[in-house]
Amino acid sequence: MLGSTHGTFTTDRRRTHVVACGEPPPPTIHGRAPTTDDLDVSGRPLHADVPDLDRFFRPESVAVIGASDAEGRPGTGITRQLIAWAERVGARLHPVHPTRREVFGIPCSPSVADLPEQVDLVALLVADPLPAIEQLAEAKVRFAVAFASGFAETGEEGAAAQARLAAAVRRSGLRLLGPNTNLNAFEEFREDLEGPAIALITQSGHQGRPVFALQELGIRLSHWAPTGNEADLEASDFISYFAERPEVGAIACYVEGLKDGRAFLLAADRAARRGVPVVAVKVGRTEAGARMAASHTGKLTGADAVVDAAMRQFGVIRVDGLDELQDTAALLARARRPSAEGVAVYSISGGTGAHFSDLAAEAGLMLPTLSAAKQAELHQWIPEYLSVANPVDNGGHPVGDWRGRKIIDAILDDPQVGVLICPITGPFPPMSDKLAQDLVDAAEETDKLVCVVWGSPVGTEDAYRRTLLGSSRVATFRTFANCITAVRAHLDHHRFTAGYRSPFDEAPRTPSPSFRKAQALMRPGQQLSEHAAKQLLRAYGIRVPREQLVTSAAAAVRAAGLVGYPVVMKASGPQLAHKTELGLVKIGLTSASQVRDAYRELTDIARYEDVPLDGVLVCQMVERGVEMVVGVTHDALFGPTVTVGLGGVLVEVLRDAAVRVPPFGEDQAKAMLSELRGRALLSGVRGAAPADVDALVEVVLRVQRMALELGDEIAELDINPLMVLPRGQGAVALDAFAVCR
């Protein structure tokens, strides 16, 4: 796990320390020394350390090192923009340049040491910011911004330079934005807009432009953090900070790579506790996208399946495009908590309503059938031959008179309906103008969410530009897909936060007795034999078959009698991962002679293949059940992760699995099972009895405990197959594979 922010911890064989180059300041949690309540059983933090960024965004004094007013110089435009920004936020600005007496008419200091006052923020307009860091530390500067490029985004040499810069920043005690950042933090935000705002975080400044432009549609923005290469301050720091800001209604992120997976989860957890939605575009879903992201910011992108699961686990809403980021963040920032999850679709065209309803239902939105009484009420104003069950088709004419508002109010009055969506595929004055105004007026008088999809390709109509966009209560979209994505995210977010319990609050702080037993079984840098891996499982209370490890044919026969026929015999050795392919598994043995023959055959094959054995396992044969796989792998960003999926040969054929990042509780373990495409197998199919899902969940949670306690000592663990027996009979780990770190 990477760690490079103040107060970010990692572990090395259960010793807690701060990852650093040089001598960092003592680690803190919220400005104090950490205690056992702040750290989990692995020594990792349980709470985000929220940086105080008030003086970054609203400094009282600013210095610009390398300030210039010479036309044609790279720093001149930046200096000019910083002067204008400082004036807007009420900060005193001090140019710094060794050979200039003034810049743009402002007196210039030759060095930081000569500044007339202590400054809050310094902008570094120099090619190499490293030499300035020590000077800034001596001047007790709190924040600095490095615009220079040529660091980790350029390759190994640049990454080394960035590491030196990061180490200097850690020693200094100041906080740094960049390098390879830009001026987005110092943009001019509209002050005339009201309501909850969007706070924006981007690792590529240009990608934030569409969200910034939402101000032109009346959506308020409060902050923009262009994090660049994140040598120090990273996206997670800004998520934690923005989640605490009362004016922030939603956080929108464009993320190319996560610097520290643990820090990201802690930040997302803080936002979830506060009920602040985080919407993110995370690039790197494909191999090509991951390569481009790394070349741009020099960060790990991580296994995308793990990133995706981690985001869902902590309530981060992942979207694919910048248009979805715009629309989803705007809706989540402004919409109130839904009173019901039902969606009603209302249109002046039956075809439009049916099309939209199909798409919405396929996306998982609930479209309740309106009650007979409600349908009768609607038919007072809508002809009887039109369907009003949901979607509601008014036929067109009622929207042009007094009936239009009556229909809208009647739909919104239904207790099943929490969201009303009206797709208007194209302007059809005066119908569309009157319909838009009625929807805006109704939205002002209800707590329910009213959405409009304005389908005109022009977008210059008064009904759209003035009526709909002029309303702070109506959410207006230009496409069906973006409306559905945003509404689903809105309902999912409020459902998630309403029942949210932070997994970090329940994470174990001290090792279990199982850990002490298991640690004695670890063999650093080695793969464990099946027998040793099963001993590891036993230490954590995970059931394995009755079995004995033997080293002779006679002992095998005695073991079979004790285990009970029929038996399975398997070669066991530290270098055996795929025994079946080598013919090193024999099943269904029912007699002593078969056991003796099997022992000789297994040992002969092992000698022929030059595979060292620690013996042969004589195992109880377990036949009935659903084969699953449960395992632990080590992700480069998030550390230990837990996976569950369909097992046996289906693992590699179907790749049907779900993953979570510890810690997590029983609800998340059950959610993992619900994500599997083959989950119906656990319910019983073709006459099979339902499987013992409770036992499977318990195994997942015990494996999670192993991941938390042994995460720095175990590189990989597979239980495959885990035979989940019929309900009430438990689950048995038939085979196990483990590699120590």
Automatic annotation (TrEMBL):
Q: Which residues does the annotated region (Disordered) include?
A: 1-42
Where is composition skewed (Polar residues) in this entry? 1-10
Query: Which InterPro entries does the record cross-reference, listed alphabetically?
Result: ATP-grasp (IPR011761), ATP_grasp_subdomain_1 (IPR013815), CoA-bd (IPR003781), NAD(P)-bd_dom_sf (IPR036291), Succ_CoA_lig_flav_dom (IPR032875), Succinyl-CoA_synth-like (IPR016102)
From the Swiss-Prot or TrEMBL record, what is one GO molecular function term?
A: ligase activity
Cross-referenced Gene3D superfamilies: ATP-grasp fold, A domain (3.30.1490.20), ATP-grasp fold, B domain (3.30.470.20), NAD(P)-binding Rossmann-like Domain (3.40.50.720), Succinyl-CoA synthetase domains (3.40.50.261)
Instruction: Cite the Pfam families for this sequence.
Output: ATP-grasp_5, CoA_binding_2, Succ_CoA_lig
Record keywords, A-Z? ATP-binding, Ligase, Nucleotide-binding
Q: Where does the record place the ATP-grasp domain?
A: 534-572
Is the keyword Signal assigned to this protein?
no
How is this protein named in the record? Acetate--CoA ligase family protein
